[in-house]
């Protein structure tokens, strides 16, 4: 049963989306974008909604496969565009506002797609919690007039998870999975080779049963984050040996465990200490 406040928020979300008529949704198969894709399809009809996925080296293969599966589940057209953020030296330099340059590439391509297909609006899955976080991509969205209906309706991450469960979406309890570039320490150049190292090692941890984890990339050192209550599992001798073998074969010389445990956005902690500064242009 949806509580009255959440019901009011969903009604407001419908009021925001209905007048748009047709929309293109920036779709990554995450909790938020899957919810807004489904809600838009239910509100406008699936024939009036297009899921747009940016495919690049920063998107893990497993995540891309999920975009295909989920778009089919929702019943909307799925368009895959090749973005060009890896041609932008600002993005490759990996400043703290790296996401701005990535999203700028995505939204430039979405704007072209919408214009050529007579789609009046592009929307994303940004929620109300994101507005108080370090999200340089939100600036890019504003500059390209990409709408944020979930945030505008006041929907939080927890709200979206609850509504996703009500809608029987398989993503309702999916762990957050930002792009692979977010694992590389700020100021260290982004390369496809580094992203493949990260992807391989995170996939290995998933196969070992760590559903929520991060491999933070610090040059030749990998910093593993798992929930605090799972750190003990990493300390098992056989487990450590298997992880060490795989990570070294992937290219890491040093493998460490973060004793604070998993926390979303831990790479942003250096911003608070003024260790890195943003770059624009």
Textual characterization of the structure:
- The protein has 281 residues and is of the alpha/beta class.
- The chain folds into 2 domains: 4-166, HUPs (Rossmann fold), CATH 3.40.50.620; 180-264, Alpha-Beta Plaits.
- Helices cover 44% and strands 12% of the residues.
- It has 12 helices and 7 strands.
- Strand 5 (214-218) and strand 6 (221-225) form a beta hairpin.
- The N and C termini lie far apart (48 Å).
CATH topology of the largest domain: Rossmann fold
Gap from first CA to last CA: 48 Å
Reported for the largest beta sheet, the result is: 4 strands, parallel
- Proportion in β-strands: 5-15%
Keywords:
281 residues; alpha/beta; Rossmann fold; four-stranded parallel beta sheet; three-stranded mixed beta sheet
Short structural summary:
44% of the residues lie in helices and 12% in strands. By secondary structure, the protein is α/β, with parallel strands linked by helices. α5 runs parallel beside α6.
């Amino acid at each position: 049963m949806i509580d009255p406040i959440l019901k009011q928020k969903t009604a407001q979300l419908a009021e925001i989306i209905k007048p748009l008529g047709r929309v293109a949704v920036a779709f990554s198969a995450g909790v938020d974008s899957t919810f807004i894709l489904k809600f838009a399809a239910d509100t406008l009809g699936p024939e009036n909604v297009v899921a747009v996925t940016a495919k690049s080296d920063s998107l893990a293969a497993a995540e891309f496969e999920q975009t295909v599966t989920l778009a089919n589940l929702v019943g909307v057209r799925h368009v895959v565009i090749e973005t060009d953020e890896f041609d932008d030296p600002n993005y490759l330099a990996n400043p703290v506002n790296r996401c701005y340059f990535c999203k700028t590439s995505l939204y430039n391509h979405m704007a072209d797609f919408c214009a050529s297909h007579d789609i009046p609006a592009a929307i994303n899955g940004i929620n109300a919690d994101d507005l108080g976080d370090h999200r340089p991509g939100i600036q890019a969205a504003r500059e390209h007039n990409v709408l944020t209906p979930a945030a505008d309706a006041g929907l939080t991450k927890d709200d979206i998870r609850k509504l996703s469960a009500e809608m029987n979406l398989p993503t309702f309890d999916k762990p957050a999975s930002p792009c692979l570039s977010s694992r590389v320490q700020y100021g260290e150049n982004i390369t496809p080779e580094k992203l493949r190292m990260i992807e391989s090692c995170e996939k290995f941890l998933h196969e070992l049963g760590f559903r929520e984890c991060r491999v933070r990339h610090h040059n030749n050192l990998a910093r593993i984050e798992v929930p605090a209550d799972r750190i003990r599992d990493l300390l098992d001798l056989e487990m450590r040996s298997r992880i060490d073998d795989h990570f070294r074969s992937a290219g890491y010389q040093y493998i460490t465990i973060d004793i604070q445990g998993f926390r979303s956005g831990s790479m942003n902690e250096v911003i608070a200490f003024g260790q890195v500064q943003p770059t624009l242009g």
